[in-house]
Recover the amino acids of this structure.
């Protein structure tokens, strides 16, 4: 059977975390009443259409371009993409068609310990559109209703090269992109809320061929999971068609999450010719080196740099490094714990199992957690010094996670401190030995199981607070010498 | 007492001194405007009560002792420039009842300085062309001869004596052409001089507000007020604005003037216009001026170049007329049909053809073969003009190749636009240009013969005004 | 480059893209106008033009940027002031029916 190679390019739109729209001072805040965040500029009203570029939006996009290893344009320019649609107030969208903010960059994905660079063709700034809504469904609604609150909100579009070879790589690319943009603090990249949207261009070609096959554009994937599922489905659909000897119809297809299939979209009224030309209202603005340098200086250590540093500096396995650098907040948390307790792998284990387990169960992120990094460090210190057992530590951790309290306080309150004092333990061991002469005898006659029984009795006596290693050691010494 | 003979500054002074009562003056302006409106159809949504209200408002301001260099000076505002209190129609059915939510920056400045907004000027739909016959509100008559076009209400209002000056826009030369048709002065300043915030423009890269007046001093007074940077307008310039009132008092010394070689090689150029210009140029020689003929290779491509660029920009800029948020709406159950109905019924036939032309030459192969080539030709025209103006103070050409066309002769098509033959170059290059009226002394009261157009260096409106004053006071 | 000849079909496509209905008479008039126009614009044939840069703006400007500060939006009644069809808070448009 013929083997195919999957070729995927992703077009990702993210909303930028600016306070105002791209070309006017209207707020971008979510949840406002319809048409209350609009003005003559973003409504495209005659006599009020002069666009004034949001400096922060420009800086965020330059920041992203730098972080994605792109070449930054020497001149900020904007173009008009002309088409008619009810959610598009001006009859054109202002975008960067001819000179995108960044070109020719890449990002790195890590998969099974291997790294791969995915090319970024371009990254540019453009306006979002308004929203159409209906009474009930579109068929029964007498007309469409339009809200222009989102019209003109800054969107950054990131277009990858067709370097992605599987649904899994697509998911990893998207995740890495989100991680980077979140590190930069320029978007919250929430797919479910629409602040990150992804379209995929998908085609197959015979293995060994360097030509691109006919592609479909897949839209309407609203979560990382649906990107993965949608692409998997579409790749299989195309493979089946190609194997049957048919050819792919180049078209736009919709992912139907509920049915788990992709469907062709009719697009009768979308003009293919956008007649893009430079917006005569926005003269080119030079992007000088000083400006770029100051933006560069504001970029924090990025996930890949952190990933390699964690491996190098802390000797972590790649998997741990990948997980811990998944968000800047988690990485910062990890490193703060390390300042109190410098056992990188132990700390990593705790964070990846206990902390992340609890976070997932509670459905919250690290920033919303009550537990403080310093306190986790303190707790691990206590374990390290043997003042509490690992098992106890877990129950202390539980309390810390729930209340955010200092671990020492919790230990004191619950009387959980481990008994490591030899004099105290000596007395208790003597009492237990005196009460169980049969077991002592069994031990001496070679029944090693008796030791376990005696330890259990001691732990019971101390309500589990005795330091088990110490108890074992003292008990054995005592029995041997008796 | 009519404001007809006084300069704007003299009129303002007599009002401030109390020699002229504002209410009485307002009634007079109202009477003049009403008469001019009934004779020449130069205003849109004209209401004499607006003038009364406006002069009452001003009376309060004058009483407060505010500094008002234009106190009571009546002006007309082309109806594609927005004010908050009046409708703005752009001469189109599409906007017949449009209430703007923004006020033009230049208008605000004029009002702050005491100027009296008399009425909105009738105009060709969206200011495209100055044939004066393509307004939804009827043809604009020429006060010098009502059989002929007035070009624009803004120019005709000034010519009729109803107002001291007008603020209008100039796209490919419409302001200058209309002023020449009506025998008054018209100045399109350097692109970026006057804020474009509040203009309903159709060709953003060329369109610029300017002033029409009867006297050079009034041009200077109004210009001193309306120019200046506007933080709301990304195309406005922070270039310093001189006090033109003071500057025009200085006499220019030995102005070097360039005249394009073969300037009169145009079939559409009327003999009368050519002769009047040639005669004036002869008289200029030696009197303060030195005149030289220069070869300009690209100047004669300006009007076609501008037609292509402005058509594409208009196609895009007028795409917001979709019947959704404002303006006329045609009825249909289907969104895209509604767009078609709205735009088909809301725009005139002439405009529809022009917009279709813009859509055509920005699509497919035409994008490269027409639109892009026009933008390249624009570079050549601009560079050539700028190079010429490094050696000369001014370039002179006629303003329009012909006198105001007859109104009965049907609507002039927007393509090809011979009226813009001489005016489009300054628009493409963003340079200041002034039209100076030439009247035939033998034909008193008749149609003006021609306009002499002076094209200056960027930001050098001063020289244009100085030369204009000199022509006005000493040579003609 | 050969001579530009515009067809009625191209004019119809352009007017349709611009969401304008032209009557057959208007289409013909426009075709003639454009044909005349192309005949008049001799520079479209200049091959030297290829090397020339395009000028989209008369001057370079310096103040296109704005700080990211929220300014008051329009009150709802002003937003709806000119709307041909709207309720108190939404614009109404015909549906897209395919
Ligand atoms: Zn806005």
């Amino acid at each position: 059977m013929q083997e195919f190679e999957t070729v995927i390019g992703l077009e990702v739109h993210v909303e930028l975390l600016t306070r105002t729209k791209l070309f006017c001072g209207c707020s971008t805040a979510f949840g406002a009443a319809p048409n209350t965040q609009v003005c003559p500029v973003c409504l495209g009203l005659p006599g009020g259409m002069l666009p004034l570029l949001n400096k922060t939006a420009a800086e965020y996009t330059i920041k992203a371009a730098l972080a994605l290893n792109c070449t930054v344009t020497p001149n900020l320019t904007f173009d008009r993409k002309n088409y008619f649609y009810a959610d598009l107030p001006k009859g054109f969208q202002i975008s960067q068609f001819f000179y995108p903010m960044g070109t020719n960059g890449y990002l790195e994905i890590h998969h099974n310990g291997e790294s791969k660079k995915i090319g970024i063709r371009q990254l540019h700034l453009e306006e979002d559109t308004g929203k159409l809504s209906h009474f009930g469904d579109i068929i029964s609604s007498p007309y469409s209703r339009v809200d222009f609150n989102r019209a003109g909100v800054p969107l950054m579009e990131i277009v990858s090269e067709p370097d992605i070879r599987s649904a899994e790589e697509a998911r990893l690319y998207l995740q890495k992109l989100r991680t980077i943009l979140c590190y930069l603090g320029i978007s919250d990249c929430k797919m479910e809320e629409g602040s990150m949207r992804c379209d995929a261009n998908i085609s197959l070609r015979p293995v060994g061929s360097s030509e691109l096959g006919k592609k479909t554009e897949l839209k309407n994937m609203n979560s990382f999971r649906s990107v993965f599922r949608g692409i998997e489905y579409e790749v299989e659909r195309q493979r089946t068609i190609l194997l049957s000897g048919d050819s792919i119809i180049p078209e736009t297809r919709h992912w139907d999450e509920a049915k788990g299939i992709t469907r062709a979209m009719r697009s009768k009224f979308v003009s293919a010719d956008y007649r893009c030309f430079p917006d005569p209202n926005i003269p080119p603005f030079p992007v000088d080196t000083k400006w770029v340098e100051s933006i560069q200086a504001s970029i924090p250590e990025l996930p890949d740099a952190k990933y390699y540093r964690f491996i190098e500096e802390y000797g972590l396995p790649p998997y741990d490094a990948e997980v811990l650098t998944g968000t800047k907040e988690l990485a910062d948390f990890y490193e703060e714990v390390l300042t109190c307790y410098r056992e990188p792998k132990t700390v990593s284990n705790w964070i990846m199992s206990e902390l992340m387990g609890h976070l997932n169960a509670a459905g919250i992120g690290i920033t919303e957690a009550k537990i403080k990094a310093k306190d986790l460090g303190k707790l691990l210190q206590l374990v390290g010094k043997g003042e509490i057992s690992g098992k106890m530590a877990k129950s202390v951790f539980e309390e810390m996670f729930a209340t955010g309290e200092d671990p020492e306080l919790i230990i004191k309150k619950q009387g959980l401190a481990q008994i490591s004092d030899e004099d105290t333990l000596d007395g208790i061991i003597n009492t237990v030995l005196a009460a169980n002469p049969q077991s002592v005898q069994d031990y001496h006659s070679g029944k090693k199981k008796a030791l376990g029984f005696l330890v259990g009795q001691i732990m019971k006596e101390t309500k589990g607070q005795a330091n088990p290693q110490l108890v074992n050691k003292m008990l054995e010494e005592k029995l041997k010498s008796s | 007492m009519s404001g007809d003979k006084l300069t704007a500054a003299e009129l303002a002074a007599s009002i401030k001194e109390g020699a002229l009562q504002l209410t009485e003056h307002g009634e007079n302006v109202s009477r003049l405007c009403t008469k001019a409106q009934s004779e020449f159809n130069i205003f849109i949504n004209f209401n004499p009560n607006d003038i009364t209200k406006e002069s009452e408002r001003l009376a309060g301001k004058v009483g407060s002792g505010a500094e008002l260099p234009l106190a009571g000076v009546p002006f007309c505002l082309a109806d594609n420039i927005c004010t908050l209190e009046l409708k703005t129609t752009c001469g189109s059915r599409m906007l017949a009842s449009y209430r703007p939510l923004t006020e033009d920056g230049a208008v605000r400045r004029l009002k702050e300085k005491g100027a009296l907004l008399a009425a909105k000027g009738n105009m060709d739909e969206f200011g495209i062309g100055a044939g004066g016959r393509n307004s939804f509100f009827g043809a604009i008559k020429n006060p010098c001869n009502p059989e002929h076009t007035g070009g624009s209400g803004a120019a005709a209002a000034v010519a009729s004596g109803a107002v001291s000056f007008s603020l209008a826009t100039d796209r490919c030369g419409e302001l200058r052409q209309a002023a020449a048709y009506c025998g008054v002065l018209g100045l399109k300043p350097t692109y970026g001089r006057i804020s474009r915030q509040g203009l309903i423009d159709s060709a953003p890269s060329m369109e610029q507000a300017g002033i029409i007046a009867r006297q050079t001093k009034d041009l200077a007074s109004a210009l001193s007020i309306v120019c200046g940077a506007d933080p709301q307008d990304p195309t406005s310039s922070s270039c310093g604005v001189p006090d033109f009132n003071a500057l025009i008092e200085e006499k220019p010394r030995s102005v070097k003037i360039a005249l394009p070689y073969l300037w009169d090689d145009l079939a559409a150029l009327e003999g009368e216009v050519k002769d009047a210009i040639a005669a004036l140029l002869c008289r200029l020689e030696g009197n303060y001026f030195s005149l030289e003929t220069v070869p300009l290779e690209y100047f004669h491509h300006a009007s076609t170049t501008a037609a292509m660029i402005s058509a594409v920009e208009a196609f895009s800029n007028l795409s917001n007329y979709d019947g959704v948020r404002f303006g006329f709406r045609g009825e249909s159950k289907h969104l895209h049909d509604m767009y078609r109905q709205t735009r088909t019924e809301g725009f005139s036939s002439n405009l529809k053809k022009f917009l279709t032309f813009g859509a055509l030459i920005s699509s497919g192969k035409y994008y490269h073969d027409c639109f892009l080539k026009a933008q390249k030709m624009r570079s050549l025209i601009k560079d050539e003009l700028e190079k010429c103006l490094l050696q000369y103070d001014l370039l002179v050409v006629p303003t329009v190749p012909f006198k105001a066309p007859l109104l009965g002769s049907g609507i002039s098509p927007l393509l090809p636009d011979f009226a813009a033959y001489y005016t489009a170059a300054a628009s493409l290059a963003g340079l200041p240009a002034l039209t100076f009226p030439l009247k035939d002394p033998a034909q008193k009261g008749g149609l003006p013969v021609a306009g002499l157009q002076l094209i200056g260096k960027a930001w050098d409106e001063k020289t244009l005004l100085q030369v204009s004053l000199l022509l006005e006071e000493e040579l003609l | 480059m050969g001579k530009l000849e515009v067809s009625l079909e191209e004019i119809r496509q352009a007017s349709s893209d611009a969401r304008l209905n032209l009557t057959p008479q208007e289409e013909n008039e426009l075709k003639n106008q454009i044909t005349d126009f192309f005949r008049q614009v001799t520079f479209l044939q200049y091959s030297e033009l290829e090397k020339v840069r395009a000028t989209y703006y008369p001057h370079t400007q310096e103040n296109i940027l704005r700080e990211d500060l929220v300014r008051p939006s329009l009150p709802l009644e002003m937003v709806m002031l000119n709307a041909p069809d709207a309720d108190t808070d939404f614009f109404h448009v015909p549906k897209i029916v395919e």
Remarks:
- Chain B touches chain C through 75 residues (CB under 8 Å).
- The pocket of zinc ion is lined by residues A 21, 24, 26, 38-39, 41-42, 152 (CB under 6 Å).
- Chain B is about 40% helix and 15% strand.
